[in-house]
Design a protein that fits this description.
9 helices; mainly alpha; about 375 residues
Length: about 375
């Protein structure tokens, strides 16, 4: 026997400590069958000076030997959040062993109620700040501040608060890793997001060019202009800082939470994709052809999320599209209409079709070449 391991044959005749042989059962001829002194479920080795004494004169922190696969000591701690089993597609990532029928419903109600409360609270805080700083406010329409750039920043910031709410609901109510909303890899895949962002920029530029060409051919000005750097830079800073979070928050809510929430009930992802697109269109103020544009955008983003196993592609196109749209408005100096939504000319749908086609095909080609993960591991 090693000097650091006790000889089991010299153990006391009666062992009274907790374990399979507690209660006074003697070891007449050595340890039980299958016991090996080198098998320890946890802890340092025998003879460690930092350990105290045990009932055998050995380490106090030792969990005990393993007999037939059963370890002595307390059971391992259970994780609060449980990941989905391997081989799970993106739309069914909420189907963990802890999934229950009520979890997506309660989580959805909590997200909506908390967001309403936070939005009201943010409005009250803005009102108090206005009183202290004497920043003028307006009560006309959905706008809160008279300064259009400040109002845009406030509106984008409030929408961005959806992001922590959705991530928190996945952890608290569904007891799964919040990263399961990001992708099947349980995290946001930044290299894949960067690739999707490059494709998104190209598709948005080509879409804007096609839209401008269709509008000019119909005798309608595309509305481009230049108001100077003094008007453009402050708005651009707000747009670049907040639009990515606003776009990501909407994707986590409409493509992440809704698709995975309904995925807990349906095997097919299409009911969730369509419902998410309907909810996305209903949350915007577009009319006529604008509703068609927003709905198709939501369907494409939902399908790409399931097809590529994550939200990277939807976030890339949503953020790029919004940055360019707001940026063009800021360049023209007409920030008062930055958040106005209404009728959209049908010619604009041609540009949207070009944008969607270029982005969809480009993302699918790169995803296939890179063998992007689409199932959990």
């Amino acid at each position: 026997m090693s000097e650091t391991q006790p000889d089991p044959r010299r153990l006391p005749a009666v062992y009274l400590a907790p374990g399979p042989y507690a209660g006074g059962t003697a070891w007449p001829a050595g340890p039980p069958p299958g016991w090996h002194p080198g098998r320890y479920p946890r802890g340092p080795q025998w003879g460690d000076a930092a350990w105290g004494s045990s009932p055998w004169g050995g380490p106090a922190a030792w969990g005990g030997p393993v007999w037939g696969g059963a370890a002595w000591g307390p059971p391992a701690r259970t994780r609060w959040d449980v990941p989905p089993p391997p081989g799970t597609p993106y739309d069914q990532m909420a189907r963990t062993v802890l999934n229950r029928w009520w979890r997506p419903i309660v989580g959805t109600l909590a997200i909506v109620a908390t967001f309403v409360v936070i939005s009201i609270g943010a409005g009250l805080v803005a009102y108090l700040v206005s009183l202290v700083t004497r920043v003028p406010m307006t009560g006309s329409g959905p706008r809160l501040f008279a300064d259009p750039v400040l109002d845009l920043g406030f509106q984008l910031g409030v929408i961005a608060l959806l992001l922590p709410l959705v991530l928190g609901a996945a952890w608290v109510f569904q007891r799964r890793p919040p990263g399961s909303l990001s992708s099947v890899a349980l995290r946001l895949r930044w290299r894949w997001l960067a690739a999707c962002l490059l494709v998104a920029v190209v598709s948005v530029v080509l879409g804007q060019a096609a839209e401008a060409g269709m509008l000019l051919s119909a005798g309608v000005g595309p509305g481009y202009g230049w108001a100077g750097w003094g008007a453009f830079l402050p708005a651009l800073i707000v747009i670049l800082l907040l639009v990515p979070f606003q776009a990501a928050a909407e994707e986590y809510a409409y493509r992440g939470w809704i698709i995975q929430g309904l995925g807990a009930y349906f095997r097919s992802p299409w009911p969730a994709i369509l419902l998410g697109a309907v909810a996305f269109a209903a949350s915007h103020g577009y009319t006529g052809w604008g509703i068609v544009y927003v709905f198709v955008f939501g369907v494409l983003m939902g399908w790409l999320a399931v097809r590529t196993g994550g939200l990277e592609a939807p976030i890339a196109l949503h953020a790029s599209n919004n940055v360019v749209a707001f940026g063009l408005v800021a360049a023209s100096g007409d920030m008062n209409g930055a958040l106005e939504q209404g009728a959209v000319p049908w010619q604009a749908l041609i540009g949207s079709a070009v944008q969607f086609a270029v982005f969809g095909f480009g993302v699918l080609i790169i995803a296939r070449k890179w063998a992007i993960q689409t199932l959990s591991r």
